[in-house]
Write a structure and sequence with these properties.
Rossmann fold, 7 strands, 16% strand, globular, binds NADP nicotinamide-adenine-dinucleotide phosphate
């Protein structure tokens, strides 16, 4: 890959951090975007130590002004972005009758509004260069998951967002795809185990027992899939949802 400028949201840890490292290894200069700029800096520094180029950008993806300022910094410090990975995410799980409006709104704001704002802010740079790669992080929960009405709706929404943008942006050389991870070992799955009161190793073993490849996923499993969608070679692949879940379905 020629030096491209990639923006990865939610990249201070977990899947986003692995994606940022992978895209840097693929030759991208990477903007590591997350709420906490100090946490982003640790990832950016580790990329630079491995010989890559990265900057840390503290931005709340659900805040329109913060997104505009964050993208302006990327353009100024790295250059115009041509790869965007909308990965920032939160969970606020509860059965519907216990789900608060705040739980609903936060999940919609981070996943859907955040992906919308980031994509809208970045797409002009891609269109100008007649090249772009957008990857949205969905989830197997898009197919339905007890206790996740908010999250499942947001992740299914991202699939519709992906397919629509693929139709709108294709003629400008911009592809838009989604990845739907299954169980990936990160803070997010630790949080779920804690909420339901199961020790993490037990929770993980229970999940692995249901997964055809007989293990849970690691952030790198997702980073490899992003690497493909972000590559120049993937220019004829758009509007797809790739389930990366260790089996044919969730
Ligand atoms: P994670 O470890 O919790 O990382 C998510 C990151 O997003 C955190 O650093 C978080 O920051 C950041 N973030 C939250 N709200 C943000 C905002 N408004 N603006 C910017 N950054 C924000 O989760 P993960 O497991 O790596 O998940 C990454 C993505 O994959 C998410 O979209 C998730 O829904 C999706 N996914 C994960 C799994 C899984 O099994 N782990 C499965 C399917 C899909 P704070 O910590 O400061 O809030």
């Amino acid at each position: 890959m020629n030096t491209r400028i990639a923006v990865v949201t939610g990249a201070a840890r977990g899947i986003g951090a692995a994606v940022a490292q992978q895209l840097a290894a693929d030759g991208c200069a990477v903007a590591v975007v997350d709420l906490d700029e100090a946490a982003c800096l640790l990832v950016a520094e580790s990329i630079e130590k491995s010989g890559g180029r990265a900057i840390a950008v503290g931005t709340d993806v659900s805040d329109e002004e913060a997104v505009a300022a964050g993208v302006a910094r990327v353009v100024q410090e790295l250059g115009p972005p041509t790869v965007l990975v909308n990965n920032a995410g939160v969970i606020r799980d509860n059965l519907l009758f216990r789900m608060t409006v705040a739980d609903w709104d936060l999940v919609m704001d981070v996943h859907l509004r955040g992906s919308f704002l980031m994509t809208r802010a970045v797409q002009g740079h891609m269109i100008e260069r007649k090249f772009g790669r957008i990857v949205n992080m969905s989830s197997t929960s898009a197919l339905g998951n007890r206790g996740q009405a908010n999250y499942a709706a947001a992740k299914a929404g991202l699939q519709g967002f992906t397919k629509t943008l693929a139709l709108e942006l294709g003629k400008f050389g911009v592809t838009v795809n989604a990845i739907a991870p299954g169980f990936i070992e990160t803070e997010m799955t630790h949080e779920t185990a804690e909420r339901i009161g199961v020790p993490f190793e037990e929770f993980k073993a229970g999940a692995a027992a249901q997964i055809p490849v007989a293990r849970v996923g690691q952030p790198e499993d997702i980073a490899h899939a992003v690497s493909f969608f972000a590559s120049e070679a993937a220019g004829f692949v758009s509007g797809q949802v790739l389930y990366v879940a260790g089996g044919p379905k969730a």
